[in-house]
Amino acid sequence: MPNEHIVVVEDEPDILEVLRYNLKREGFQVTTSLDGAKGLELILQKPPDLVLLDLMLPGLDGLDICRHLKNNSRMQHIPIIMVTAKGEESDVVLGLGIGADDYITKPFSPKELIARVKAVLRRGNTAILATKNDWVDIDGLSIDISKYKVMLHGKEIKLTASEFKLLHYLASHPGQVFSREQLLDHTFGSGVVVVDRNIDVHIRAIRKKIGDDQRYIETIRGVGYRFKELS
Ligand code: CA
């Protein structure tokens, strides 16, 4: 049983209870707050292993809290999952931009909630390893960063430098959603000459070359892209 500590900030009592109940049942320690400012205080007092953060909160809202934590050197490592309502995609993009790790959309199933929480906690432990790794090998697709080489089921795939950087970046963070802006910053920020700054164009080109029908790269509507978490 895990015993990681999770702080949940959510102003709708019913949803808060669903979150609390399901997390506790999985063995997590749970502290809750119905209020943004109090929630932030709880987090600062005793930094948890993960924060589940509703975006729309009276007073101090979820994005404010996220910004606050990510600007605090003692807190910025704490993973944050945003809890959002349908139609808040633009806020999700903002949240990802300021450092939130993932999001779930209401209504969600308990199974989905627990899966995302566990994935984010696991990612926290393996992220450093993954970025140091010269190799990404997922479900028939292997990416060799030192040789700039991509193989699909043993067959070499020719990608442009920007396509390669983009695919490698996504594939080394499986399960993590990125906005288009984040992908631009992370992949084309350093030294690559980009002919087209439109991420969608590059994704389309990669998909075509690796024959991907969202098996590897998923389009997250209104938000961006995610490399599928393969179990
Ligand atoms: Ca709310």
Give your account of this protein's structure.
With 231 residues, the protein is α/β, with parallel strands linked by helices. It has 2 domains: 122 residues, 3-Layer(aba) Sandwich (Rossmann fold), CATH 3.40.50; 93 residues, Arc Repressor Mutant, subunit A, CATH 1.10.10. It has 8 helices and 12 strands. The strands form 3 sheets. It has a 5-stranded parallel sheet with strand order 2-1-3-4-5, sandwiched between helices. Strands 6-7-8-9 form a 4-stranded antiparallel sheet, with helices on one face. A 3-stranded antiparallel sheet has the order 10-12-11. Strand 4, helix 4 and strand 5 form a beta-alpha-beta unit. It is elongated and about 50 Å long. It starts with a strand and ends with a strand. About 2% of the residues have low confidence. It binds calcium ion (CA). The site of calcium ion has 5 residues, from loops.
Short description:
With 231 residues, this protein is α/β, with parallel strands linked by helices. It contains eight helices and twelve strands. Strands 2-1-3-4-5 form a five-stranded parallel β-sheet, sandwiched between helices. A four-stranded antiparallel β-sheet has the order 6-7-8-9, with helices on one face.
